[in-house]
Amino acid sequence: MAANFVDAQVPAAPAAVAQDRTASYLLPPRALGAQTYRLSPVERAQRVKQGVPARELVAVSQAMGLPREQLMRVLGLARSTVERKIAQRGTLSQPEGERLIGLERLIGQVDAMVRESAGGDSGEGAADFDAARWFARWMAEPVAALGGMAPQDLLDTADGREAVSTLLLQIQSGAYA
């Protein structure tokens, strides 16, 4: 039986503040993943190469409702290095940025799955669904299809993120129940 993502409601998170080097703007938590998910692979690669602002990690951790230390640990990022980059308003290295963008893509994938299953933004429950919070809870639980590993144990590598993405597609299609 396919998982019903719409039924997995969590309270909406407050809007996260995302900042770049020149401006500060309010970004709804679900926009982080949805925007990244809609990018083509080439556009995501360009975004990583241009440098992902380190403060984006703060926005993602807030959207997920996780302490940023926990998020850094899950992504395999050196805490002191990333904290320094945040304080200096710097950018993440390419490997660090790729991990964060990869996580955002997975959150966007969940958001897109829910909206598709619910018939769009106006579908029952889709507007209230918080993909970032749902993903934060789901990634911590062991999954039999991943050999008993929790999805968070795979988020620090590209192949691991691809395995999690494939699992989400299988759940959506009902191929894994």
Characterise this structure.
- With 177 residues, the protein is mostly helical.
- The protein has one domain (5-173).
- Helix content is 54%, strand content 5%.
- Strands 1-2 form a two-stranded antiparallel sheet.
- It is globular, with a radius of gyration of 16 Å.
Structural class: mainly alpha
Helix content: 40-55%
Report the sheet-strand fraction.
under 5%
User: What is the C-alpha radius of gyration, as a whole number of Å?
Assistant: 16 Å
Strand order of the largest sheet: 1-2
Topology, number of strands: 2
The number of domains is: 1
**What is the succession of H and E elements?**
EEHHHHHHHH
Low-confidence sequence ranges = 1-27
Identify the overall geometry.
globular
- Total count of helical runs of at least 4 residues: 8
Domain Antitoxin Xre/MbcA/ParS-like toxin-binding: 129-174
GO molecular function, one term: DNA binding
Protein name: Putative toxin-antitoxin system antitoxin component (TIGR02293 family)
InterPro entries: Xre-like_HTH (IPR046847), Xre/MbcA/ParS-like_toxin-bd (IPR024467)
Summarize the structure.
Pfam families: Xre-like-HTH, Xre_MbcA_ParS_C. With 177 residues, this protein is mainly alpha-helical.
Keywords for this structure?
177 residues, mainly alpha, 2 strands, globular, disordered N terminus
Q: What is the strand and helix layout of this fold?
A:
Blueprint: E1 16-19, E2 24-27, H1 29-38, H2 41-50, H3 55-64, H4 68-75, H5 79-87, H6 94-118, H7 131-138, H8 158-173
Antiparallel strand pairs: 1-2
